[in-house]
TrEMBL record:
PROSITE patterns: FKBP_PPIASE
Protein name: Trigger factor
Keywords, ordered alphabetically: Cell cycle, Cell division, Chaperone, Cytoplasm, Isomerase, Rotamase
Class in the EC hierarchy, top level: isomerase
Species name: Tepidimonas charontis
Its biological purpose: Involved in protein export. Acts as a chaperone by maintaining the newly synthesized protein in an open conformation. Functions as a peptidyl-prolyl cis-trans isomerase.
EC number: 5.2.1.8
Catalytic activity: [protein]-peptidylproline (omega=180) = [protein]-peptidylproline (omega=0)
Domain of life: Bacteria
Length: 436
């Protein structure tokens, strides 16, 4: 029988479902009989509980399950016959009236939209490029040395300077009143590495052991501590200890400790270059891919299914709760997280997903096994045991599907760039890496 589909809105549809009462009663009876063989009740041997007693105890819940199953199956048959692509879960309600011998339900749901893809030849894109220069290698080498540095006492009477690890006591007040988080004893940080606000570091720089001073500090408007953001505090700082950093020499022992068996500076620099070039490649790929996909999504035409947007908001809210849990926030499960904060992000993600899926379908784009294997091996090459990493991904279908999705998105971006109007743009290594 043809399915009558009623259009309620751009993407909202309604259909009527009818389920025979005889089929419901037959299935309820079959399930109760199966339950009879398993159920245990006081006063009866296992499997010997009378069917009437089982029906009295479990009949209502079994009928509820059967009706849900029958309606769900009827809905599935109806949308398949009508060739509808359902977005989200339907809202199903029982109708007050139904033909004799039937139960009738109304199902209201959304369908996925038709996507009108943008003309790729009209897209204007910048394609970023960056190179690993000698300065980047030197900077990385210094980072490696800092990771293995030690600290020792600075000579008596010498002032604190950049690179020194200092131990201080401090007490902050706003309008003469202490505030939460504004006091600490034996607090340690390294000057010049951005662990503290710039003004605070500036006040400690040049101080000597035993010296105390009061300095004003203006908290930024976007400071993470909302109770002090945008306010000015006076801090009494006492310097208790200064330790000078000692960087290791770049000798054979140091180089071999980094896993470079040749033990030479040339081999170390070449190893650093390879690692940085791999990182640069992945970052360029990610930024160019994001630009291409966002441009395609912005220029394409489609209506967004509300159900899909709400489901994406659910995922984002859940992700935010998990983040709070990992940070140790008490009662993270009950923390109020306004859903509207994620509305735009969810809409963007849904739009992007629908557009990309349509482009993939329209052009039969795929991630080949060879591409997936090559990407996986390049990813694993930065680890000490690459083969173990490759096997770890391949041993789990979910993990491997993540790699396949990345490769497929890369193919989509390449497809867009090959047809769009592209302007090459070279950026510096530091800019690409987000370094100041």
């Amino acid at each position: 029988m043809a399915v009558n589909v009623e259009t309620l809105d751009k993407l909202e549809r309604k259909i009527t479902l009818e389920v025979p009462l005889e089929a419901i009663h037959k299935e309820v009876d079959a399930r109760l009989r199966r339950l009879q063989r398993q159920v245990k009740m006081d006063g009866f041997r296992p499997g010997k509980v009378p069917l009437s007693v089982v029906a009295q105890r479990y009949g209502a819940s079994v009928q509820y399950e059967v009706v849900n199953d029958q309606v769900g199956a009827a809905f599935g048959r109806a949308v398949t016959e009508a060739q509808l692509r359902v977005a989200g879960q339907p809202r199903i309600t029982e109708k007050d009236s139904a033909p004799e011998g039937m139960m009738a339900f109304e199902a209201v749901f959304e369908v996925f939209p038709e996507v009108k893809l943008a003309d790729l030849s009209a897209l204007e894109l910048e394609k970023l490029d960056a190179q690993v220069d000698e300065a980047a290698i030197e900077r990385t080498l210094e980072i490696l040395r800092k990771q293995r540095r030690t600290f020792g006492p600075r000579a008596e009477g010498e002032p604190a300077q950049d690179g020194d690890r200092v131990t201080i006591d401090f007490e902050g007040k706003i309008d003469g009143e202490p505030f939460q988080g504004g006091q600490a004893t034996d607090f340690t940080f390294v000057i010049g590495e951005g662990q503290m606000l710039k003004e605070f570091e500036g006040a400690v720089r040049g101080m000597k052991v035993g010296e105390s001073k009061t300095c004003p500090l203006a908290f930024p408007q976007d400071y993470h501590g909302k109770e002090v953001a945008g306010k000015t505090a006076d801090f009494l700082v006492t310097l208790k200890k200064i330790e000078q950093q000692h960087l290791p020499e770049v000798d054979e022992a140091f180089i071999k400790s980094l896993g470079v068996e040749a033990g030479t500076l040339e081999a170390l620099r070449e190893d650093i270059r390879r690692n940085l070039e791999r990182e640069v490649k992945f970052r360029l790929q990610a930024r160019n891919k994001s630009a291409a996909l966002e441009a395609l999504a912005a220029a394409s035409e489609l209506d967004l299914p509300k159900a899909a947007v709400q489901a994406e908001i659910d995922r984002l809210v859940e992700g935010a709760r998990n983040d709070l849990k990992q940070r140790g926030v008490p009662n993270a499960d009950q923390a109020p997280i306004p859903r509207e904060l994620f509305q735009q992000q969810a809409e963007r993600r849904v739009r992007l997903g629908l557009v990309v899926a349509e482009l993939i379908k329209a052009n039969d784009l795929r991630a080949t096994a060879e591409q997936v294997d090559a990407h996986l091996r390049e990813l694993a090459s930065s680890y000490e045991y690459p083969d173990a990493v490759v096997n770890w991904y391949k041993s789990n279908p979910d993990r491997l599907s993540e790699i396949e999705a990345i490769v497929l998105e890369n193919n989509v971006a390449d497809y867009i760039f090959a047809r769009a109007r592209v302007t090459p743009k070279t950026i510096g290594f530091a800019e690409l890496m987000g370094q100041g």
